[in-house]
Design goal:
There is one protein chain. Helices cover about 25% and strands about 25% of the residues. The chain is of the alpha+beta class. The protein folds into two domains: about 120 residues, DNA primase, PRIM domain (Alpha-Beta Complex); about 160 residues, DNA primase, PRIM domain. Its EC number is 6.5.1.1.
């Protein structure tokens, strides 16, 4: 429970300042009535409550990584900024992960998550590698539409999934929470980013050759037309992507959500997977990525000359 003195804010909500005790740590919570997703009727307090339930899943993909957040102090539709360096002051329960002169946050605990949520961090983008390591923790192919509304995006993801399946690679599609779909492949340890980039290029080139009216691997958006971009280059050391189960700063309060391939075949809208629906889904289905075995890519890499 957050308690405190209320005053009327300049945007009409009631300003409140109170405290929460989480895992023995005292956190100051400000302006719990502030609307962060007004159309979805989600206030900051609603958001923090949602983060509490998402934490076991979201932390799994942010823990021991270098975290970038996107902050929206006045809600998703207002001004925002990327936060790489840990916001000051840093509470004593927050662990840092320095890299290349930047003090990243290691999002490894529930108090740290709620601290960031209170600062209106609405998106969580972890590094592709663990702290202190240079090899990838997983393999991700980003399927990125050139159009804001792209009715073919699920078909595109399905075709990439079929190509991976033909190589005996199990994968999990997930909505980005924005406009794209990402193909997530849990992998055994020891592969390099360079190997996976070559494999991504192989798959992208295959898809472009087979479906030239649907796919492109053209890096410059201005040259893509309406084609869907297979982004195998984003998966690299030092880069980030939206974490599984991160909220997104979109009108419908969407969540980046892993799907079953049979769901992809039904062409769902990413808007269906949001803060109002995610907890029931997780309670019934669990974490689809965690249920997928780590993939051995040796045979495929050897086949393309990247072993």
């Amino acid at each position: 429970m957050v308690t405190g003195t209320k005053t009327t804010g300049t945007k009409g909500y009631k300003k409140v300042k109170g405290t929460l005790i989480i895992e023995g740590h005292e956190l100051t919570i400000t302006n719990p009535d502030k609307p962060l997703w007004p159309e979805a009727q989600i206030t900051k307090l609603d958001y923090l409550q949602n983060l509490l339930q998402l934490a076991p899943y979201l932390l799994r993909y942010c823990r021991n990584r270098h975290l970038t957040t996107i902050r929206f102090p006045h809600g998703y539709g207002d001004k925002s900024f990327y936060q790489k360096n840990a916001p000051e002051p840093v509470p004593d329960f927050v662990n840092l992960a320095p890299l290349s002169g930047i003090n990243y946050v290691n999002l490894d605990s529930l108090p740290t998550l709620i601290w960031l949520g209170n600062l209106a961090c609405l998106e969580f983008h972890p590094s592709f590698h663990y702290i202190g390591e240079t090899t990838p923790a997983e393999w991700v192919i980003d399927i990125d539409p050139s159009l804001e509304e792209e009715p073919r995006i699920m078909l595109a993801a399905q075709l990439i999934g079929e190509a991976l399946e033909a190589m005996h690679i199990q994968s999990v599609p997930k909505t980005s929470g924005a406009t794209g779909v990402q193909i997530y492949i849990p992998i055994q340890r020891g592969y390099s980013f360079d190997q996976l980039r070559k494999l991504g290029h192989f798959i992208g080139s295959y898809a472009v050759n087979k479906y030239p009216r649907l796919f492109t691997i053209e890096r410059f958006k201005k040259n893509r037309g309406d084609l869907i971009y297979i982004d195998y280059l984003q998966h690299a050391y030092g880069k980030t992507l939206s974490a599984p189960y991160t909220p997104r700063a979109r009108k419908d309060a969407t969540i980046s959500t892993p799907l079953l391939w049979k769901e992809v075949a039904l062409n769902p809208s990413p808007r269906e997977f949001n803060q109002h629906t995610i907890i029931d889904r997780l309670n019934s289905m669990g974490d689809l990525i965690d249920q997928t075995p780590l993939q051995n890519l040796d045979f495929v890499l050897e086949h393309i000359g990247a072993k």
